[in-house]
Amino acid sequence: MPRTPSVRELLEAAVGDIGGAERPGQLAMADAVAKAFSSEEHLLVQAGTGTGKSLAYLVPALLYRRPVVISTATLALQAQLVRRDLPRLVEAAEPLMGRRPEFAILKGRNNYVCKHRVGGGVPQDDGDALFEVPAASSPLGKEVLRAREWAATTDSGDRDDLVPGVGDRAWAQISVTSRECLGATRCPEGAECFAELARERAAEADVVVTNHALLAIDALESIPVLPDHGAVVIDEAHDLVDRVSSTATAEITVNAIERVARAAARVADERQVDILLGVAEGLGATLGTMPEGPLNPVPPLLSAELGALRDAARNALVSISTSKDDSPESLLAKKIARSGLEEIGEVAAKLAAPTQYDVAWLAVEERRGRVLRVAPLSVAGLLRSALFETRTVVLTSASLAVGGGFDTAARSVGLPSSEAQDETPKEGEDALPRWRGLDVGSPFDYGKQGILYVAKHLPTPGRDGLSTAVLDELEALVEAAGGRTLGLFSSRRAAEWAAAELRERLKVPVLCQGDDTLTDLVRRFADEPETCLFGTLSLWQGVDVPGESCQLVVMDRIPFPRPDEPLSAARARAVDAAGGNGFMSVSAAHAGVKLAQGAGRLIRRTEDRGVVAILDPRLATARYGSFLRASLPPFWYTTDREVALGALRRITQSTDAPSAEADGASEKS
After folding, report:
1. 375: number of CA atoms within 13 Å, CB side?
2. What homologous superfamily is domain 446-663 in, according to CATH?
């Protein structure tokens, strides 16, 4: 008779199957996840690099009585789960469970080939159209031809299976957005639709892997996109609030209005479409005179024009032809027009009169021009009602305990503080969701493997870029490390400036983000040990280069959000108004996560040794410095420049790097 193995049995079998060793942190996490599922109490678990947290949540997920959704922030982790971790786990589980567990991956519709579009059944949006017949010899033409050839033979239709990949414009020729999709029942290719087949596989799976954006759409919108499930595991949970905020942000551009108007012209009253285009032209002229920044409040003229845009979109929507032509082409044209007009009307109405719970602002982008945006002031309430009150949730990350505790992360997603959840609810109030936090540590001995060096003697960073003193400090550190440096900078300008300067001063190769594709830059950095790699936010997480190629991680400044970033600034003001500390709750919390992610690039295996150098004295001198340092791995801490340089020189000279205690350091946190 088939039986259900215990979490420990299945974990032991899975680890043994890959030739691994038992890790105490992994076992503790697996037990905690299983307990959370059975008790229906939410869990926040910090698991450092090397813990093996993927198996620690996949094993109990596979054994849970209901399907479990695994949500990730990055494509890299999704690929690791479905191509490596889950196939190995299923092989180990089958003989123990007496059946073969099923898993599936589910992405947004535009990540799959649309057979109807490939067959010429979906008109290309005029605003984004390629040339009618791209020149076969052009890079774009070659990508389109290769994508179409692949689309004719693929079994999955999944964009990630097209290797090498193609750009967004080429991919748009063989895919559709949800707005452009007819739906399975009306589409001639509905029975063989790759996106629908993926949903069917997900509906039968024990574990479904998806991304934060799709999880947000499923939780926040009325139309479910994920199959029925009893629990959610959110990996890379430090990114959840930003991803949900992005999903919940609505925007309008004049170009987008014009594209919708062109689509509507095929099926709507011509006079109403002309009115819509006229309103768009007036809106564009007004936006051209306005400065970038928050709309608090929305200027009367802009509010009036947005109201006119709302009315014009609604009138055009009402005028859409009610002809009985039910051909796929006619139905699709009407669907695209209705969807676009409805969206414009809704966003315009929200922007014209945002509530106290909304943040509206005007952004100016190099490629898209002027963009009006509106976002919820907080997504905590949305997440609490749509996610945490309906199912059991496990959040995990290597950087979840901001400031050394879980309360900051808990409050950001709508959970109460650790103290508040223990309070007895008042009469008529619902009980607060319950959660617990767990830090299972890391198999690495950070105190012996790495040093956190804060350059306390440097000037406080200003707005004028990198000072001469900072560049001199950077030069000395990189020289002591013999290259082997990952430089994480707060802006592209700072990264490029530092790269150009050090290329003049040092003989080691210095790569900079933008010189080549990020994948190729990271590969060169890993393959050429004396090479340095400088870049911005995309390098702060996801770069996994163990060994001698990365023995120094440098951050030019504490990565606070920009003070003129409208959403962060509004959230900080709201916390202040409620009697809290907006700077600590928003800016410091954001910086703590980013610092932890950046510092996590240094130690990737038990043999690694090195230094994390932060060239911002505020980490040592400011009152919030201890909060931020508590967010980092527990490196040996010093502000002594000679200690850091001496350690780097010894690491460079010997493969048997000394422990941090043997470095003669004179300070400890």
Report:
1. 26
2. P-loop containing nucleotide triphosphate hydrolases (3.40.50.300)
Higher pLDDT, residue 9 or 2 = 9
Reported as half-sphere exposure (CB side, CA atoms, 13 A), residue 96 has a value of 21
Secondary structure class of 70 (helix, strand, coil): strand
Q: What's the pLDDT score for residue 456?
A: 97
Burial of 374 (C-beta count, 10 Å sphere; 0-12/13-18/19+): buried
More confident residue, 21 or 307: 307
Check if the beta carbon of residue 57 is closer than 8 Å to that of residue 96.
no
Percent of the chain with pLDDT over 70: 93
Q: What is the CATH number of domain 7-107+197-243+379-439?
A: 3.40.50.300
pLDDT digits (tens, 9 = 90+) for 443-493: 999 999 999 999 999 999 988 789 999 999 999 999 999 999 999 999 999
Task: Specify whether the CB–CB gap between 4 and 97 falls below 8 A.
Answer: yes
What would the pLDDT profile of 541-565 be if each residue is shown by its tens digit? 768 888 889 999 999 999 999 888 9
Q: Using the predicted structure, report yes or no on whether residue 663 has a pLDDT greater than 70.
A: no
The Cα–Cα gap between 33 and 36 comes to: 5
End-to-end CA distance of the chain: 57
Task: Enter the tokens of residue 130.
Answer: 């390629």
Same fold, 7-107+197-243+379-439 and 446-663: yes
Q: Residue 669's closest CA among 641, 643, 645, 634?
A: 634
Helix (H, G, I), strand (E, B) or coil at 398: coil
Per-domain residue ranges of the chain:
7-107+197-243+379-439, 113-192, 254-367, 446-663
Q: What pTM does this model have? A: 0.87
**Mean of pLDDT values over 421-426:** 71
DSSP tag of 441: -
C-alpha distances in Å from residue 467, one per residue of 290, 300, 472, 501 = 33, 44, 9, 12
Q: Which residues, other chains included, contact 40 with Cβ-Cβ below 8 Å and sequence gap of 6+?
A: 392
Tokens representing 105 are 């991956």
**Total residues found in the chain within this entry:** 669
Structure tokens at 112: 């799959």
- The distance of Cα 451 from the centroid of its chain, to the nearest Å, equals 28
pLDDT tens for residues 114-128?
988 888 766 555 444
355 bridge partner residues: none
User: Using only C-alpha atoms, what is the Rg of the chain?
Assistant: 27
